[in-house]
């Protein structure tokens, strides 16, 4: 009986003195933005969570946030402007034409590309090799986290490509067998 009580006291003491553990994670990132003017900006873009005692910090690019604990998720709002350029608050104060981003092992790109069937803004967002098109002018890239970093990436306001909408051939605008078409085909 005394042995059982001793074990119970020990386990209770252990549970009462245990502090919740939070695992830090840090993903190196590189962001490359191309602006409507043609200017290109490349910056480091880390994504991390760290804590020391009761100070918890979540970093997204150049922004740092004091948080109460490890975040479960985070989202980038992607705004397709009426002039067909894009803005993401975490990336730039200005609108831009395209971007590439690596976060750890994940790769993202947004590029303009004229397709056979028009898509909103002529944009293709590629996440880890999977293509998406804007369905609305406001979209989201959502991240879920665990102790090691990103566990899931999902999107809202975008529709996945089925692979049947291919790039428009720029040589199609020339008449068949014309010198211009032959030159275009030669220069592909």
From TrEMBL:
Signal peptide interval: 1-23
Keyword entries, A-Z: Signal
Keyword Signal among record annotations: yes
Domain of life: Bacteria
Keyword Signal applies: yes
Stated name of the protein: Uncharacterized protein
């Amino acid at each position: 009986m005394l042995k059982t009580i001793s074990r119970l006291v020990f386990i209770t003491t252990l549970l009462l003195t245990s502090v919740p553990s939070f695992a830090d994670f840090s993903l190196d990132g590189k962001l490359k933005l191309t602006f409507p003017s043609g200017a290109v900006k490349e910056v480091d873009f880390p994504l991390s969570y760290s804590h020391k005692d009761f100070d918890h910090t979540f970093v997204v690019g150049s922004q740092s946030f004091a948080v109460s604990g490890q975040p479960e998720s985070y989202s980038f709002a992607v705004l397709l402007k009426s002039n067909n350029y894009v803005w993401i608050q975490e990336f730039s104060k200005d609108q831009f034409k395209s971007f590439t981003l690596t976060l750890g092992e994940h790769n993202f790109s947004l590029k303009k590309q004229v397709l056979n069937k028009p898509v909103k803004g002529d944009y293709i967002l590629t996440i880890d090799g999977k293509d998406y098109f804007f369905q609305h002018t406001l979209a989201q890239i959502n991240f879920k986290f665990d102790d090691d970093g990103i566990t899931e990436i999902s999107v809202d306001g975008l529709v996945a490509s089925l692979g049947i909408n291919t790039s428009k051939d720029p040589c199609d605008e020339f008449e068949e067998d014309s010198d211009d078409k032959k030159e275009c085909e030669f220069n592909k």
